[in-house]
Amino acid sequence: MTTALLENTSRDAVWDGAVIDVDVHANVPSLQALYPYMDQLWIDWCEERGWKGPSGAAAHYPPKSNRACRPEWRPAEEAAASRVELLREHVLDPWKPDYAVLNCYYGIDSLRHPDWASALARAVNDWVRSEWLDRDPRLVASLVVPARDPVAMVEEIRRVGSHPQFVQVLLPARNDQLWGQRVFHPVFAAMVEHDLVAGLHYGGTTEGAPSTTGYGSWFVEEYAAEWQAFAPQVTSIISEGVLQLHPELRVSVLEGGFLWVPSWGWRMNKEWKGLRREVPWLDRAPLDLIREHFRFSVAPTDAGPPELLAKAVEWLRSDDILMFATDYPHMHDDDITALLAAVPESMRPKLMAETARDWYRL
Amino acid sequence: MSVPSTNPSEPGGASRRVDKHVVARVADVPDGGRVIVEVGGRSIGIFNVGGEFFGLLNRCPHKGAQMCKGNIVGRLSSSAPGEYDYDPSSKLIMCPWHGWEFDIRSGQSYFDPRGTRLRAYNVQVEGGDVVAGEIESGSTALTPAQYAAANPSALLHENGLAPGPYQAETIPITVEDEYLVVNLRPARPARRPRAEAVS
């Protein structure tokens, strides 16, 4: 069964309490859709060159793949998840969430032109604000940033970060540098200043390969093994002392899975005890920092057999760490009822809504 | 002066238990140095930190490594990335196996000062005349190695073992020297006086 679709079941049969969906997507349907949000300079820049948009998004989500859009959610004549009406029809109406967190991964990071990347980030954020946030009060969103330029990232956070419906900054899991490094510390400072969550999200187009050993041959290798891009980012944010610098910082791991976290954390805790002199600011066990400063969306859930799933969730040793997501319009075949059955009863309302409500101050 | 021919802590000596043991000459453990001695059936490291002496059980509470053979390092902490709060006068010993750091003064582990600690022993500096008197009265003992070295024939007679390997640890007690005396009684944390605690 795949419950994200609510096929052959009702929302209340799955969960009759409050719901907050922390990962739904807005797809830019075409570059022209952003023209109303661009200066004439950049419109002409695109037209003169016949430029169709950044390549990053299609590389991560091949447009006709079911992984990019579940067939039932694919509109006949237009791009998937490209209008708020589609999101209402597919998620907001059937799931009746109190809120949904909108993430637009448009692959701005695949641009190397620094001024064009900043202009495009501004255009995407203004498009999200006008065409989504202004049109449905249940929506809050991540703002996007030109990830190759920390100074420009800060500028964009300052430009739109005070809007009450921007609650997060989308940081692609793959990046040219690890997010915890010093060069990005002012970016985290700007997030904290604007009370925004750092949203580590699937995607990112880097000069480097998706694995540490080059490019895989097939989409499945990149797609299924994307956690190997998330893990070093989490390790970097922990090791570089970002959380000591900003004790208020919240980091969401979105579309990155979560069952790798316990084994990663056990190793980190163990090594921290003996290697902590190298990173003396790391004054607490890494898994303790995870439980305080990180939350994970549950789509995809790398579930495995149900009886083992309960055990694996227990290894997280926290009722507060998981947040429900449909990951609309992506198709994961996750069974949220199986996950709910595997977690303690006290954790279910937290997983479905309350953790996200606290986390995003909704 | 000569070393007494009986050792109260050893078989053949007096039966009452002795907590204090002479383990080294002060001059043998320079500042920053250490010696590891066998005393009372356990291995103990004696450390000189800035002229003060501290004793630690030579056994890591984690996996049992010979803790006192590890590197001696200064205390390093930090309040933020790039900030280094380094106190080279405060020393920690790092376990040679997994690098866990323990405060040489207290035996407390750095990462878990409450839950993980190394047993600490009190080490006193005593003059040779005092030590000689204490050994004479039986309140202080030589380590087994010292005893064996000082009384080769006695030990040979007792159990047929030759004391050869222990010769290096022989300490002839002389009144002019100062000695390190370790107390095997567990060092207790300092408590506030009862009256003060009640008020």
Automatic annotation (TrEMBL), chain A:
<feature type="domain" description="Amidohydrolase-related">
    <location>
        <begin position="22"/>
        <end position="362"/>
    </location>
</feature>
<dbReference type="InterPro" id="IPR032465">
    <property type="entry name" value="ACMSD"/>
</dbReference>
<dbReference type="Pfam" id="PF04909">
    <property type="entry name" value="Amidohydro_2"/>
</dbReference>
<dbReference type="InterPro" id="IPR006680">
    <property type="entry name" value="Amidohydro-rel"/>
</dbReference>
<dbReference type="InterPro" id="IPR032466">
    <property type="entry name" value="Metal_Hydrolase"/>
</dbReference>
<keyword id="KW-0456">Lyase</keyword>
<protein>
    <submittedName>
        <fullName>Amidohydrolase</fullName>
    </submittedName>
</protein>
From TrEMBL, chain B:
<dbReference type="Pfam" id="PF00355">
    <property type="entry name" value="Rieske"/>
</dbReference>
<feature type="domain" description="Rieske">
    <location>
        <begin position="21"/>
        <end position="132"/>
    </location>
</feature>
<keyword id="KW-0001">2Fe-2S</keyword>
<keyword id="KW-0408">Iron</keyword>
<dbReference type="InterPro" id="IPR036922">
    <property type="entry name" value="Rieske_2Fe-2S_sf"/>
</dbReference>
<keyword id="KW-0479">Metal-binding</keyword>
<dbReference type="InterPro" id="IPR017941">
    <property type="entry name" value="Rieske_2Fe-2S"/>
</dbReference>
<protein>
    <submittedName>
        <fullName>Rieske (2Fe-2S) protein</fullName>
    </submittedName>
</protein>
<keyword id="KW-0411">Iron-sulfur</keyword>
